[in-house]
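Priority: medium. Attachment 1 of 2:
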């Protein structure tokens, strides 16, 4: 039976057109998912405020560069202050929500509460207050968990670590279990004070945060 080369050619062309159309649709869908500008407010302490670092070396600055590289329109308002506690963050948050109307609020607070030995009941309530205010303002929430050294006492250390997953579960918020994963156990990734991560640690911190943050930026 003779081969119909013209028909075969037409079939091949049709397949290529369909493949191209499918690729264009996928690209358009991906771009559309992140096309609308979504402001991110980062409410944190020195770990997010570039303490001891050159400007642009902290994980928040690295996040902005990553967003731009991935063509995700999401300006960041870094409202982090060195030494900030959950009480201070809770007091400042509403004004930030009113001014910036963020799509996402990243809450990275609690470490200074623990360092000062503050009541975990108060810390827990402050975190819940911030999550509730953010959600009331129609913002998605990413809770960034922390852990503290065991020298604060076994019970206090354990209860502090349990705060974040507990609140995230109760409020149906996204969670980074431990901000300093793959950093805390490496002395060479800290500044001379042995408290604040060095510039080399911040790409690792971003890697801990990004997988939980990216889905919040999609529609």
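Attachment 2 of 2:
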């Amino acid at each position: 039976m003779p081969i119909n080369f013209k028909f075969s050619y037409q079939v091949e062309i049709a397949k290529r057109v369909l493949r191209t159309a499918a690729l264009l649709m996928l690209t358009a869908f991906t771009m559309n998912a992140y096309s609308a500008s979504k402001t991110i407010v980062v409410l944190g302490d020195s770990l997010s405020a570039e303490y001891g670092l050159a400007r642009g070396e902290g994980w928040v600055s690295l996040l902005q560069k990553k967003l731009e590289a991935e063509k995700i329109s999401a300006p960041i308002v870094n409202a982090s202050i060195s030494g900030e506690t959950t009480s201070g963050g809770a007091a400042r948050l509403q004004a930030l929500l009113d001014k910036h109307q963020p799509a996402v609020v990243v809450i990275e607070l609690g470490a200074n509460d623990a360092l000062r030995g503050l009541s975990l009941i108060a810390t827990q309530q402050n975190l819940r207050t911030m999550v509730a205010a953010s959600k009331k303002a129609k913002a998605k929430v990413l809770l960034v968990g922390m852990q503290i050294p065991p020298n604060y006492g076994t019970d206090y250390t354990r209860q502090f670590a349990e705060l974040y997953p507990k609140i995230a579960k109760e409020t149906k918020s996204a969670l980074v279990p431990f901000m300093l994963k793959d950093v805390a156990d490496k002395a060479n990734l800290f500044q001379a004070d042995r408290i604040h991560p060095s510039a080399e640690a911040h790409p690792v911190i971003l890697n801990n945060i990004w997988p939980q943050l990216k889905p919040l930026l999609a529609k």
